[in-house]
Every structure is written in C-alpha cells, then in structure tokens.
Amino acid sequence: MIVRQPAEDSRRRGWRQLGDLALRLAVLIGAGLVWELYARAFPSLFIPPISAILANAWDQWVTGDWRALFIAPVFLEMLAASFRRLVPGLIYGAVSGIILGVALARVRFLGEMFSPLIQFFRAIPSSAKIPMFMVLLGIGDTMKIWVIGISVALPLLMNVMDGVRNVDPTLLAVAKVYRVGPWTRLWGVILPAAAPQTFAGLRIATMIALIVLVLSELTGAADGVGYYVLYAQRMFYVLDMWAGVLVLGFIGYLLNAVVSLAEVRILRWHRQSTSTAR
C-alpha cells in the first residue's frame, strides 16, 4: 500500500491554486482585450477603449510621492469617503442580521410574530428606502450607514434563520443526551452547522451593500466613488466615469475576496467533512 506524503499533497494543492489564479487572470485579461477591440472596431464617445480609461486614471490618480504609495490624495479621499460609510454599514448589518436571525429561528413564536414585518421591509427596494431615511436622518453619513446596514441585515437574517432551522436534528438530540448547555450548544453546534448558509447570505449582502452605497452617494453626497461617477456623467467626462465604474468593480471584487478568504478559513472543517463523506 502506497501512502501519499503530506508534502506531496501540499505541492499539488499549491500548483492547483496557482493554476486557478492564472486562469482567472487570463479570463480578466481576455475580457479587457475584447473590450479594447470592440471599442476600436466600433468607435463611440460613450464606450472608449479600456486603454484610454486606464491611461486617464493613471494620469489623475497616480503621483510620484512614494510616501502615499504613489496614489494621488484625491483618489485616497474618494475611497476613504466611501469606505467610512460602507464598512460600518456592513458591520452593523452583519452583526444585527446574524443575532436577529438566530433569535428568531430559535424562538419560534418570535419568528412567526415578526415574519410579516420582515417580509414587508424586505419587499421594499433599497432605492426606495433611501428617500425615507433621508427624511428621518437627513443626507449625512448616518443615513447612508443606516440604509446599508438594513439592506445587509435583511437578506442575511433570512439566510441565518433558514440555516439555524435546518440544523440536523440528530446533532441537537446528541447534544441534549450529553447534557450540553444552551450556550455551548449554540456556539458549538448550531452556529457551526448554520455557517455555510450564513456565508452564502453574507456574500449576497456584501454585494447589496456596495449597490446601496452607490445609490446613496448618487442621491445625497458630495464625495465618494458614487458621487464621482455621477459628477463625471453629468459633466460628460466619459473617461472619468468609466474609471469610477472600474473602481467600483474592484471594490466589489475585493469585498468578495475577503468574504471568500474568511469562509475558507472558518469552514475548513466543513469542506473536509464533506470530502470525507464522499
């Protein structure tokens, strides 16, 4: 019987990850080439070549000051304005969504009582929530953080509730047999079992947060990436507008990468158990 060495498995896993990264980069570069060829084959004022967009962004946002990592202050200020709204909204929404989801799933009568209210607010589009919160909280950052937080909490809450309710009854029965306390059962059985669905909801909520951020900055802000895109569109600065759109895409990719990394680290046991079961 031949036993595969752990070092060999690690090398194969490393090569596989490197190949996956190369494939993703190839797809990204290929999409950029298609954009470039289309824009040059069918010239249009509103769809410039991606090379022109990147060159314009480089001229405006890259400086020679190494102390700022060669990034222009105007670009850093634009990102800082958006992240000071996005990050608190994401944190508040994620924490409240997880806590409320667990509570409503574990206490059945609370879930049934608040279900109509949750479904009512869930049915209201995020773009329609912005005017309501503008009336209540004004047009400052507080309004934007609240809108982002609620838009994040609602879909995450639903996923957490489904995940907690669908925990394998056998696990709960075994925990009761061994007289595991309620808090230990919650942290050691229920939350880990519901974690895959929680992360699925977190992925969706993260993208919703970015969309709501842009919408809120389009309607009531004087800085941030969303405002930058709107201002460029109104002034017919097409290259600037597309550069802002690319920045939003990069922020979305970065957020998804952070969630994916956390998911890989936290749910390593889940992947191992499923692969063993197969």
Short overview:
The chain is built from eleven helices and no strands. The chain has 278 residues and is mainly α.
Order of helices and strands: HHHHHHHHHHH
In total, the number of domains comes to 1
Instruction: Tell me the major beta sheet.
Output: none
Mean pLDDT, to the nearest integer, reads 84
Helix share, percent: over 70%
Spatial extent as radius of gyration:
23 Å
> Tell me, what's the shape?
globular
Q: Give the terminus-to-terminus CA distance.
A: 21 Å
CATH architecture: Orthogonal Bundle
Helical run tally: 11
Question: Which range does the strand content fall in?
Answer: under 5%
Helix-and-strand structural type: mainly alpha
The CATH superfamily label reads MetI-like
State the total count of DSSP E strands.
0
Just give the CATH class: Mainly Alpha
What fold name stands as the CATH topology?
MetI-like fold
The unreliable regions are none
Could you explain how this protein is built, in words?
The model has no long low-confidence stretch (mean pLDDT 84). With 278 residues, the chain is an all-alpha fold. The protein has helices at residues 6-41, 50-61, 73-106, 108-123, 126-137, 141-165, 169-177, 182-219, 225-234, 238-266, 268-277. Helix 3 packs across helix 8 (182-219) and helix 9 (225-234) packs antiparallel against helix 10 (238-266). Helix content is 83%, strand content 0%.
